[in-house]
Amino acid sequence: MTNQTPTKNTNAFFAMAGISFAVSLLALMFAILYLDADPWAKAFLAIGTLFLTTSAFTLAKCVRDNQESQSVVHRLDQARVDRLLAEHDPFRAVS
User: What is the pTM of this model?
Assistant: First the structure.
């Protein structure tokens, strides 16, 4: 049996992801703000950006929760198998 440890992100990767998200969101808002269009068109694009951002966070959370639930079930199943193998005695008399 192999023990698989869950992989963890480094602080540098987490910082890079947060900074890139902030820069891209600010750049998009800046582009919408300085777009040569009517105010209603700018508002529509800003609301679309807000909706896209919140739905991306929700999707990421759902994917993360799904992976975590699967890994917990996998670890419980592995623990049950390990317990059964530890308790199994092939030389015990069958009664």
Answer: 0.59
